[in-house]
Specification:
The chain has 496 residues and is α+β, with helices and mostly antiparallel strands. The chain has helices at residues 115-122, 142-145, 312-315, 329-350, 381-384, 426-429, 431-436; strands at 96-99, 109-113, 147-154, 158-161, 188-193, 203-208, 216-219, 232-236, 305-306, 440-441, 446-457, 465-477, 489-493.
């Protein structure tokens, strides 16, 4: 008999009974062996392993193009990560040997795994989300990031979303898209606000209807308190919720300069190697036009847009959708304006973004074609790989993303078709996010503070009278706050 429980997805187990006395005689029936299509005459030609995943592993120009050569010319990003989103290239799978001890005399090999075997261990063993997974990458599934929406109505075990994709509901949130039937089966549903709110209790979704009509979710157990139109909910899949690097790492670190100990003055295209400056003292800062009091510990990152505070007009300047051969400048500008409005609507309805990657919750239900899961700005990625469903891929783009779209690994100066030869993986799924990942943040070091002081006569009576009013404004800069300096810089602003 074979092992009773497989260690990874794709292992097929079976049992059989053999007659006594000799189980290995030629007449004993045993299960047929399947080695794959075209190689198997015993069974049916199907491989005995699970679905195949094509994984980019150290492809050309990873982690970034223009690696510096000794005596050669230097171009940004010098072979390193150009954008925060490029950290999606980092794998957490590999080949390794596990031993019992380090001493040669006592060392025994416990386990030896190749890269394909470790990739199998990294799979979540859920076959329904195979189309959406990026095995071995810090690339959460859309359901791991969570979907949030408002309630249109509910019964004991059903909840209907308020957005039908055309009217009603908060724009940019909810389920008003063309999700197939049972796209959310297996998700965890929580009531996060309003009637019945209890973020610590989840209900497992048993089935869901299809859109673009309002999606209805059926859960396994009845709601403790039936939600109503004041309620908001979240849906999470919890397969790879930990797989986000952007809350912990960044490629924007001005206190470490662009490359080790090199001033971050603009580098001329093809310039010779810049002169290194040793940082023997942490108080030395290699930054052009830095103030005399600046230290490497207090250098801020300039020019980032805070997605939690920026108005729609500012957010619309981000290149979320870019002009292509099929998307005009005017259409791209209108799409960016629409997406900016959806970002503002989302945070007003559900609060601030906790991570820059949570932008991938936002889509535009008015067009069905723009959104952060839509790498090209021309097809809805949620249809290609729905959130844990087995829906067929209906809207697939013909061509792979290129340099102009923001996929710069590999750099494709010769315009070769499909240069990295891997389609619909993390590079395409997160392309919109990656394009703007170096331009956005969820926190700021500089804030504008407004203070209004009023003087009232007869306050607390039926006839109060405002007799004086004064407003003051300040810019508060906390970039220089350290463990030894807890006082932010405060700059008064004239408001005459």
């Amino acid at each position: 008999s074979s092992a009773s429980k497989p260690r990874q997805q794709g292992v097929v187990t079976s049992t059989w009974t053999t007659p006594a006395p000799n189980p290995w005689i030629a007449t004993v029936p045993v299960p047929g062996v399947s080695l794959g299509a075209g190689m198997d005459t015993l069974k049916n030609g199907d491989a005995s392993y699970g679905p195949q995943f094509t994984i980019q592993f150290g492809n050309k120009d990873f982690p970034g193009p223009n690696a510096a050569a000794t005596g050669g010319k230097y171009y940004f990003p010098f072979g390193g990560f150009a954008r925060n989103g490029d950290m999606l290239e980092i794998p957490y799978i590999g080949c390794y040997v596990i031993t019992t001890a380090t001493a040669p005399v006592n060392k025994k090999i416990v386990e030896m795994n190749s890269l394909p075997m470790d990739a199998a261990f990294a799979d979540d063993t859920d076959t329904t989300d195979d189309g959406a997974e990026d095995i071995g990458r810090f690339s959460p599934l859309p359901g791991d990031l969570g979907i949030v929406g408002a309630v249109k109505g509910a019964t004991g075990t059903t909840l209907t979303d308020s957005d039908d994709g055309n009217t009603g509901g908060a724009k940019g949130v909810g389920l008003g898209y063309r999700y197939p039937v049972n796209a959310f089966k297996g998700y965890e549903l929580r009531i996060i606000a309003g009637t019945g709110a209890d973020p610590n209790t989840f209900y497992t979704v048993q089935s869901s209807t299809g859109a673009p009509s309002s999606v209805t979710l059926t859960v396994a157990t009845a709601f403790a308190t039936t939600p109503d139109t004041t309620s908001k909910y979240s849906l999470t899949l919890n397969r790879y919720p930990w797989a986000s690097l952007f809350d912990y790492l960044t490629v924007l670190a001005p206190h470490e300069d662009y490359t080790p100990n090199v001033p971050n003055a603009p580098t001329a295209l093809g310039a010779t190697a810049p002169t290194a400056t040793a940082n023997a003292d942490p108080n030395i800062i290699n930054r052009t036009n830095a103030p005399p009091s600046a230290t490497e510990e207090t250098v801020g990152v300039d020019g980032l847009i805070n997605i939690n505070t920026a108005p729609a007009a500012v957010l619309a300047t981000l290149p979320m959708v870019v002009p292509t051969s099929t998307i005009s400048v005017a259409v791209a500008a209108a799409a960016n304006k629409s997406l900016a409005q959806q970002i503002v609507a989302y945070r007003h309805a559900f609060g601030p973004f906790r991570s820059i990657m949570e932008l991938e919750r936002v889509m535009d239900p008015t067009g069905l074609t723009w959104g952060f899961k839509d790498g090209f700005g021309s097809y809805p990625w949620s249809i290609i790989t729905p959130f844990g469903s087995n829906a067929t891929a209906t809207y697939l783009p013909t061509n792979e993303a290129e340099d102009a779209d923001g996929d710069i690994t590999p750099v494709n100066l010769l315009n070769v078709a499909n240069p990295d030869r891997v389609r619909y993986d993390f590079e395409e799924k997160h392309l919109v996010f990656n394009r703007i990942s170096n331009m956005i943040t969820t926190r700021s070091d500089s804030f504008t503070v407004y203070i209004m002081v009023q003087a009232w006569r007869n306050a607390g009576t039926a006839a109060p009278e405002l007799v004086a009013q004064r407003r003051a404004a300040y810019i508060v800069d906390r970039s220089a706050v350290t463990a030894n300096n807890r006082n932010p810089k405060i700059i008064p602003v004239s408001n005459d």
